[in-house]
Amino acid sequence: xxxxxxxxxxxxxxxxxxxxxxxxxxxxxxxxxxxxxxxxxxxxxxxxxxxxxxxxxxxxxxxxxxxxxxxxxxxxxxxxxxxxxxxxxxxxxxxxxxxxxxxxxxxxxxxxxxxxxxxxxxxxxxxxxxxxxxxxxxxxxxxxxxxxxxxxxxxxxxxxxxxxxxxxxxxxxxxxxxxxxxxxxxxxxxxxxxxxxxxxxxxxxxxxxxxxxxxxxx
Length: 218
Known about the structure:
There is one protein chain. By secondary structure, this protein is α+β, with helices and mostly antiparallel strands. It is built from six helices and nine strands. The strands form two sheets. A five-stranded mixed beta sheet has the order 6-7-5-8-9. Helix 1 crosses helix 2. About 5% of the residues have low confidence.
């Protein structure tokens, strides 16, 4: 997570004008695996601050550069400190678990296709921590478990695999049985809910209390 600082905005920059710049960032951020979370503006001092989830500072800067050209003067890597009121940890992983029914007689086709899908994801999503596929005992349902470093990674994933998901439901998946989401990312969760079929429960658990991620254990 990064905080970028704009020391001297163009004279006369208003809250409305800066909000428009932020909207342009949002339009292109997914291409860089970035998520601009919040912005603040001091009109009198002509300063602005942007909180952003990004793989690195260059990716965060690239979004500004490509969206509108107004680059930050400084970018700091930051972490959110836990408070006594329990606001949670925005640096915790973003975890997605989706469970789907498999069309009758399509279990083997689903197994092969999802194996290829996992290879595609591994090749094209270097930030993704973990992506695993599990079948139930009789092969009538499959769960896909994803562990992302942050919500921006999940945003990128959804854009990347949109066509694959459509094909999967056409060919071997029958429907969604439920979705579980763990972690911060309000607009990401809203997107997941929006694309979930009516009547399918989406369980959201946003507050990470404690734990760790060990990526090099064997």
